[in-house]
Design a protein that fits this description.
By secondary structure, this protein is α/β, with parallel strands linked by helices. It is built from nine helices and four strands.
């Protein structure tokens, strides 16, 4: 039976057939000189880069009863978030499904479970992924309060359908989208409480509320 050093040399001979810089460097480095198996293995491993650590992400999806009929069902959101994580190379650690709870408050059972999970797994979770920012929070103050809490844990927010990230442009886009979500909620509340008013009046009221006037 061939010894380990002979096996290592035979492997390197086979590697010659592959025309890649890394493999050629390995073959040229050893020049097929007899070495102990342990020495050869250590030198070969040193020639290849180490795999980067996995980037962990948790997914949060939310839906109201009405939104089930507006192409925002939980499976639709989940598929989009999973595909986004796949494209980005994120490892999905956990998924949280919120159904039927109001977006006007952060006191939602699955949202609180998500925050608890993030605290208990600090260092493993790097991103919270949502379908869009309206799934995360509709109130702009709640949005940024939650974002600040996640940031304190070393976690960033990502949207599967919106271009937000930690760059200055991404943060600007996030602020605009969060403001629009809040304005849309204000319009719905005004329209529900005063059905006789037209949309222009309602939007104007929403802008005033958004500016704090």
């Amino acid at each position: 039976m061939a010894d380990n050093s002979s096996i290592s040399i035979a492997v390197l001979e086979q590697l010659r057939r592959f025309d890649t810089p890394t493999v050629c460097n390995v073959v040229e480095l050893f020049d097929l000189r007899p070495r102990t198996a342990g020495y050869m293995d250590a030198r070969i491993q040193a020639c290849f880069p180490k795999l980067p650590p996995m980037v962990g992400a948790v997914i949060y999806v939310r839906v109201s009863t009405k939104e089930q009929t507006e192409n925002l069902s939980l499976p639709t959101q989940l598929r989009a978030c999973e595909e986004y994580c796949r494209r980005q190379g994120y490892e999905i650690l956990e998924c949280f499904h919120e159904e039927g709870e109001s977006p006007k408050t952060t006191d939602r059972s699955q949202l609180q479970n998500l925050l608890t999970y993030c605290r208990l797994n600090k260092g493993r979770v790097h991103f919270v992924v949502v379908f869009n920012l309206t799934r995360f929070a509709r109130d702009k103050y709640d949005h940024f309060a939650l974002r600040a809490h996640l940031k304190s844990l070393g976690i960033s927010l990502r949207s599967a359908t919106e271009p937000i990230d930690d760059t200055s442009t991404g943060k600007l886009m996030e602020g605009v989208l969060a403001a629009f979500a809040w304005c849309k909620l204000a319009y719905r509340l005004i329209h529900r409480n005063a059905p006789g008013r037209d949309i222009d009046y309602a939007l104007a009221a929403g802008r005033r509320a958004l500016s704090g006037a």
